[in-house]
Write a structure and sequence with these properties.
Helix content is 12%, strand content 45%. It has four helices and 14 strands. The model has no long low-confidence stretch (mean pLDDT 95). It holds the Pfam family 4HBT_3.
């Protein structure tokens, strides 16, 4: 059983149809947050088509459950600039907004600064592993199958911090190669899911937002997430991940999380 070759089919004029590869683990009629985030990054990059500017931070706010079906993405420049610019993308179904993303783009110039990187290195890529998902989950889960997961520690079916190499083998939009920032967006929303500290049979983890701050675009096929979720007694949590590739540090991801009993 394989996932479709793309998360979205282009319909023209900013409209896209989702495929089963976008499926949420909890409701196959809804979408996981990763693919819509990646689609919004794509539209922001296309809106601000300047090779000297790149996405340095994006925040996706999930305003409602994201259904399967046909959506439209519109973009606008909120703050123009030659050195920094703010661009917004809105993903809608009919008249209802489901995702709003804002991204800061910063002017880049080769050899402008001395590199300094203090993030810990990623663990080595493990060999091929059996692809297992959350306990009791239908293995047909589309988003899960759209990515190859190789765990350095933890797993979907183990509570607590986790470190995983993820290789998306699904395009964001059919017929085109995704940028590496789009691929980071596609996997970053898994931060809270891979590191939930409480058993998912009894607890809900709902992240209404994700922020990814990027040092540089990822390189190569594999993206590494070293993730943990912290939970306060009042049911508010924070999930975070250090994102790396084989070369080193790429980005940080953070999510606020609502935690409640099922």
């Amino acid at each position: 059983m394989t996932a479709p070759e793309a998360y979205y089919l282009p319909l023209g004029e900013g409209r896209f149809e989702s495929t089963t590869a976008t499926q949420s683990p909890w409701d196959f009629a809804a979408q996981h947050g990763g693919p819509p985030s990646a689609l919004c990054v794509r539209e922001i990059e296309r809106h601000h088509d300047d090779p000297t500017m790149r996405v340095a931070r994006f925040t996706a706010d999930f305003l409602a459950p994201i259904p399967q079906g046909v959506c439209r993405v519109t973009t606008r420049t909120v703050r123009p600039g030659r050195r920094v610019a703010l661009v917004e993308a809105e993903l809608t179904f009919g008249e209802r907004a489901a995702v709003v993303m804002r991204a800061w783009l910063i002017h880049r110039e080769d050899d402008r600064a001395e590199p300094a990187d203090w993030a810990p290195p990623a663990r080595g890529l493990p060999g091929p592993q059996e692809q297992r998902y959350f306990p009791g989950m239908d293995p047909a889960w589309g988003y899960g199958r759209s990515i190859e997961w190789r765990w350095a520690s933890g797993a979907f079916d183990i509570e607590g911090p986790a470190a995983v190499w993820a290789r998306p083998h699904t395009a964001i939009v059919a017929g085109e190669a995704p940028t590496h920032t789009q691929l980071v967006a596609a996997v970053a929303d898994s931060t809270n899911g891979i590191s939930a500290p409480l058993h998912l049979d009894g607890w809900l983890f709902i992240p209404p937002s994700i922020t990814v701050t990027c040092l540089r675009p990822a390189e190569g096929e594999w993206i590494y997430l070293d993730a943990a979720t912290h939970v306060a007694a009042d049911g508010i949590g924070v999930a975070h991940a250090t994102i790396s590739d084989a070369r080193g540090f790429v980005a940080y991801a953070t999510q606020p999380v609502l935690i409640d009993r099922r």
